[in-house]
Amino acid sequence: MATSMASSMDLDTDSTPTPTGRIVIQKVAGRSAVTSIFSTYPLKFIRPTKAVSAEVDAVWIYTMSFGGGLVSGDSVTCTMTIGDGCTAVLTTQASTKVYKSVGSKASEQSFEVQIGSSALLAILPDPVTCFASARYSQRQVFYVASDSNLVLVDWLTSGRRMRGEIWDFELYKSTNNIYVEGNQPLFLDSTLLEQGAGLSVADRMQAFHVVAMLVILGPKMALIQNEVQAKIRERNTELFGRRSYGSNPNCKKAKTCSENKAPKAVLLASCSVFGPL
After folding, report:
1. Which UniProt keywords apply (predicted)?
2. How far is it, in rounded angstroms, from Cα 193 to Cα 128?
């Protein structure tokens, strides 16, 4: 399921950011365990001990930022290693708030993840919420084996709607790349929303307030993949498949009769298959 707008851009970067986080998960006594974890400002990790029952072999980690959000110029750089056969969940406690930028300085996040053979990583964050005049860029790169498993959710909201800030940020860019067995490209995706001289982001997005992408990868995820594809196919058939003529003899085409028009969509979804079949 993917919604994306891609373009090229340049961001001001003075130098290579200093790493602010590292997580290593490996098998210890037959169970997934955190063997190394480190974070520094503005990133913080929380490792709850009772997120799941003891019978579940999974590591659960929350990410958060000091001050409740990212300020102009913040740069987060994090690496993760998920060992063979391990299971991990990376999530958040609340939306990632991006405060307004000062000049052209963006708030940036970069994640580089290695996922081992038969390992499973689920990245399930709350959405990114960019405040008015904010500039935000994130890049996530995943290196997987042929039998690695990944669930990735990447989404954002239109902003602080109750304050009237609807698609009022300056820039949002999110890049997600997946490489298999080294550097073989498997999935390359980029979403870019930027205010320009033409239509504003709000004009382009119209009544929609959320953009989301979901990646479901790996043999352990086959059942969920099939269920998601079936649900999207069913919904789109219901939404776009109604093309019958009405009983009104004055109605020549269904699209000209308001009584026969499909209801306005509150959710548009598409599903694409990538990788070896």
Report:
1. Chaperone
2. 13
Q: Quick check: 235 and 1 in contact, CB under 8 A?
A: no
Among positive and negative, which fits the CA dihedral 94, 39, 100, 212? negative
109-123 tens-digit pLDDT: 999 999 999 999 999
d(CA 37, CA 62): 12
The per-residue b/e assignment along 158-184, b for 16 or more CB within 10 angstroms, e otherwise, is bbeeeeebbbbbbbbbbbbbbebeeee
Specify the 3-state DSSP secondary structure of 23: strand
Q: Is the pLDDT of residue 173 over 60?
A: yes
Both tokens assigned to 104? 């052209």
CA atoms of 75 and 176, how far apart (whole Å):
17
The whole-angstrom separation of Cα 160 and Cα 182 is 41
